[in-house]
Design a protein that fits this description.
It contains five helices and four strands. It has about 130 residues and is of the alpha+beta class.
Length: about 130
């Protein structure tokens, strides 16, 4: 009976420990995501200026370079109007893309030259970063 009681207590401790680690992981993830939304990301005004300037980013959610580019904007959700995700809009990508390779950045239908950085985007579109 004592062995059974010790085994039962051990199981409870293990379950509580696993639950605690899972909960801590969720909290730290939420904190870091909130920090990303506020610090170092372009404003909605900048993103809208890029869109108004005719900038389109053709991308994929599985391409590492595309994900890195999207992360400059805080992720795909933060700049939805700027990104065309080719996995979701294949026909549009097939028709509009010049190279057929993602990520592809265009401004008014012309391929963007230079680095894919916020600074270069601002320079090429005259949008204030």
């Amino acid at each position: 009976m004592l062995r059974f009681l010790m085994f039962f207590v051990l199981i409870i401790v293990v379950v509580l420990t696993v639950f605690m680690f899972l909960e801590l992981g969720n909290n730290s993830s939420e904190v870091s995501n909130k920090g990303l939304e506020v610090e170092g990301l372009p404003s909605d005004k900048f993103i809208q200026c890029l869109v108004d300037s005719g900038m389109v980013v053709y991308t994929s959610e599985t391409c590492p370079a595309c994900i890195s580019l999207a992360n400059q904007f805080g992720g795909y959700d933060n700049a939805e109007s700027l990104f065309v995700i080719c996995g979701e809009q294949k026909e549009r990508c097939d028709v509009e893309m010049k190279t057929g390779y993602v990520p592809e950045v265009q401004i008014n239908g012309e391929l963007l030259e230079g680095d894919r950085t916020l600074e270069n985007f601002a320079q090429k579109t005259d949008c204030a970063l």
